[in-house]
Write a structure and sequence with these properties.
The protein is mainly α. It has a domain of about 30 residues. The chain is built from two helices and two strands, in the order αββα. The longest helix is centred in the N-terminal third of the chain and has 24 residues. It is rod-shaped and about 100 Å long. The protein starts with a helix and ends with a helix. The relative contact order is 0.05.
């Protein structure tokens, strides 16, 4: 009689442990491991985002200022 109850307890514990690992393994959340962010297992099912292409050089004001600075250097200012 004692052997049967001990076996039931062991099997119940093993089943509960298996269920816990299966539940944790199927959550699919993003995790950070050793400084690396890993995606969820279903990242390839995400809908891709569309980003329209912009200008080839995204900083036109900066380019104009740099060209003006080059002219100032050539003039000796």
């Amino acid at each position: 009689m004692k052997f049967n109850s001990k076996l039931n307890r062991i099997l119940s514990g093993a089943l509960l442990t298996l269920f816990a690992f299966a539940t944790l393994g199927s959550t699919g959340c993003t995790v950070s491991t050793a400084g690396v962010t890993l995606p969820n297992p279903w990242y390839h099912r995400n809908v891709p985002q569309y980003h329209p292409s912009g200008s080839e050089f995204p900083f036109p004001n900066e380019a104009a200022n740099l060209q003006g600075a080059d002219r100032d250097v050539e003039r000796g200012y």
